[in-house]
Write a structure and sequence with these properties.
Length: 461
């Protein structure tokens, strides 16, 4: 909170809200330290997962304090929703007039997303693989399979990832500045781009700048943020061909190319007012933004017709790569599920045949596949429950379905007039906002990291 405090002084903002906010958080933090000085800091598996969930929740709670103190007059529910949307890198917003919002609040929103981005990378590589549910064990780092090594291994990996993450953020910020953004906008957007979060300093998002060069920079760094950071670590350690060999990265590229071509052809056939080059530019940017869960927009795709709405909803569910800042079910799960379906068909043709599945040269067991199927089923089950809750609360079909998808997939904007690219979530009932906030937390922590805490057997084992 000291960074937004500095921004308050630079832009001479009257209400020094971050001094009060920082004082409150520092006071409570010091109390917690003083009351736990003699505690054993070694974490077991159960405590590691409890710490993970409570960390996200507590940051969302303390992160909403500046919104409550600011001049934008958000209620407690609205402030919590905005903060949760930030730390989970969702990008859904309550604030209706971003252009007149204090600069310190705008940079705080960006910082929340930036912290959420690096947090989920570290969690995906070090903590989630230990649970062995949902297929995340595929991304276990060497020597990270024992609970005794959680903290030292996490610390080591965090340092390496932080250097990569900071370098990409700095490069993105400089690129934005060189292509036309002012210094403040380039810093704010660089943090939300690398985090694939999507918070902008303008209501029109990246479309405000109407600058093809800025959009190209955004596309490049969104893709760089969507690549598994474990691949960056392997590259640094000498595996120079890791980006070419990784099946998840290949899958990301194939899906992007196919999706861009589909939307591009649709826009040409449907006789939109754009020329061919503009169609390709708009298609590329919005597909990259939606698939990665960034949520930046350059055009109101909700007015393009029915097909883009259904297709973008489909892309929301797919999401990006595991171990990156992106969201959704993740590409590797769909790839392994595809291999499993093909093998089942082969077994019908060759009943006595023995077929194994390999992913990145690692043999995939049936138990592993069943865990992925369970995750996908639970993902859609929670999606439908969340959509039902929203509809019971009075929201129309499109808003309920897309709002549920955008929350659990951490995408940002939904579909339709209310929460679409040109709308926001401010007009939703408070109960809907709280329900969506829970959906954001579940989606960001891969469902099981939260749900497992409610099983008594997890604590007994």
């Amino acid at each position: 909170m000291l960074i937004p405090l500095l921004v308050e002084f630079i832009y001479d903002e009257e209400n020094k809200i971050f001094l009060s906010s920082a004082s409150i958080t520092a006071f409570i933090g010091v109390l917690l330290i003083l009351t736990n000085l003699e505690e054993n800091k070694k974490l077991n598996l159960q405590q590691a997962f409890l710490l993970t969930t409570l960390s996200w929740l507590s940051i969302a709670i303390f992160g909403c304090i500046p919104f409550l103190f600011s001049s934008i007059n958000l209620s407690v529910v609205d402030a919590f929703f905005e903060s949760m949307s930030g730390i989970t890198t969702t990008g859904s917003t309550i604030i209706t007039n971003l252009e007149n919002t204090p600069k310190s609040i705008l940079i705080w929103r960006a910082i929340l997303q930036w912290l959420g981005g690096i947090g989920v990378i570290v969690m995906a590589i070090t903590i989630l693989p230990l649970l062995n549910i949902g297929g995340m064990q595929l991304f276990r780092m060497k020597s990270s399979d024992t609970t005794e090594k959680i903290l030292p291994k996490t610390r080591e990996i965090t340092i390496s990832i932080s250097i990569i993450y900071l370098s990409l953020t700095f490069a993105c910020g400089v690129s934005y500045w060189l292509t036309g953004m002012n210094i403040f906008d380039s810093i704010a957007h660089s943090m939300t781009t690398i985090a694939t979060g999507g918070f902008s300093t303008y209501g029109e998002s990246i479309g405000y700048f109407n600058n093809p060069k800025i959009e190209v920079v955004s596309i490049i760094f969104i893709i760089l943020g969507s690549i598994p950071f474990i691949a960056y670590l392997k590259f640094i350690k000498g595996e120079k061909k890791t980006f070419l060999k990784d099946k998840q990265i290949k899958g990301l590229i194939y899906i992007l190319i196919t999706s861009i071509l589909l939307i591009f052809l649709y826009l040409i056939i449907s006789n939109r007012e754009y020329n061919v080059l503009e169609n390709f530019r708009i298609s590329t940017f919005n597909v990259v933004s939606i698939l990665s869960g960034t949520g930046y927009v350059t055009a109101d795709f909700s007015s393009w017709g029915k097909f883009p709405l259904i297709f973008f909803l489909f892309l929301m569910f797919i999401g990006g790569c595991a171990g990156s800042t992106t969201c959704g079910i993740k590409i590797f799960r769909f790839q392994i599920l595809g291999y499993f379906i093909i093998n089942q068909i082969k077994k019908l043709v060759y009943p006595r045949g023995i077929f194994s599945i390999k992913y990145n040269d690692e043999k995939i067991s049936n138990t592993f596949i069943y865990s992925i199927i369970t995750f996908i089923f639970l993902y859609f089950f929670i999606f439908f429950i969340l959509a039902a809750i929203l509809s019971i609360n009075g929201l129309d079909f499109v808003t309920a379905i897309s709002g549920s998808a955008s929350a659990i997939s951490n995408v940002g904007p939904g579909l339709g007039e209310t929460i679409g690219p040109n709308g926001n979530f401010s007009n939703l009932p408070n109960f809907s906002k709280l329900s969506l906030s829970l959906g954001m937390l579940l989606g960001r922590l891969e469902l099981f990291a939260v749900l497992v805490l409610f099983f008594p057997s997890f604590w007994k084992n």
